[in-house]
Design brief:
Layout: E1 4-13, H1 15-34, H2 38-45, H3 49-56, H4 61-73, H5 77-103, E2 108-120, E3 125-128, E4 133-139, E5 144-146
Antiparallel strand pairs: 1-2, 2-3, 2-4, 4-5
Amino acid sequence: MAFTKEYTASIVLNLDQVRQMQRAQRSVYDKGLVEQNTNALADALGNTLSILGSVFFKYTAYSLAAGIASILLGMVPNEKEALKDMVYNGYWEMGYLQDFLEDNQGRYDLIEVKFPFIEYETQGIRFITGKGVVTRVHSTSGGWMIL
């Protein structure tokens, strides 16, 4: 049985980190949840190491991949499908953050985003499950602005 909790939490990100976060979550979906290939997932996460701790609570690609395998072992098929849907939705919504930062390059260099998460407490892994809300932006000329 998986012990989970759902909550929101804020993360401060720059454009590169948004791209890494999106790539990592897409890799989790493709390699970890669809293919269920732990080694392929660990390899795919190798380019996103700097973001793993703040988003997923795991600091190495292999620990995240092994944790996901552990989560899936304890799930029935409809739970797996629900998790896949949530992880994919989180990945998809991250694209809008990338668009926002790309559209506002030269104006903002950082954003603070409040994300919805589901956390699997036993494995100590969480996933972004939906649309993040930008709560503040950091101007390239200095200072934070509340949105």
